[in-house]
Amino acid sequence: MTVADAAYQTAHGFAEGTEVLAQKMGIGKQVLTNKLNSNNTTHHLTLEESVRLMRVTGDVRLLHALSDEFGGVYVPLPEQGSAQTTSVLGDISKMSVEFGALVREVADDIQDGVITPNEHKRIQHEAAELRQALARLMADLDAMFQASQREHRSDPPAA
Question: What's the whole-model pTM score?
């Protein structure tokens, strides 16, 4: 998906409609329509408008399309990690499940030596799920590390 397609689909997929979206973004509906029209060569979304589009809609497919354009991947980070051992163990379990799902999908899809567009999409989805599971594990490990650092700072010096 191109960046322009992602912007168009993000706006037109907004549940409240493009008129409300334009209002919330602080621009006119027709201006937004023109900026989303890939055939329009004079009006385009600015970077700031693209950010507002994502914030208002909560849809980050623009980031995915932009990352794809540059051969990268957008992985949203978990908001807050948990410093609990049970969370970390659960994260490792989840990551193992997601890794297994990715391996199973790839194994199924390459048997005939051809990867179809639908198979490719499913592989990408499974890989994204694995990356998210890894991001959650790292957030929880980081939280555990930060908690450990705070505890050690408050320990009295050894005599």
Answer: 0.62
d(CA 23, CA 5): 21
Cα–Cα distance measured from residue 61 to residue 108, given in angstroms and rounded to the nearest whole number? 27
What gap in Å lies between CA 132 and CA 48, rounded to an integer?
Answer: 27
Quickly count: other Cβ atoms within 10 Å of residue 98's Cβ: 19
Q: What is the pLDDT of residues 66-121, one digit of tens each?
A: 998 998 888 777 777 777 888 889 999 999 999 999 999 999 999 999 999 999 98
Please list the alpha-helical segments (H only) found in the chain: 3-12, 18-25, 29-36, 47-57, 61-69, 85-109, 117-154
Give, in order, the Cα–Cα distances in Å from 107 to each of 49, 86, 97, 104, 125.
Answer: 42, 31, 15, 5, 15
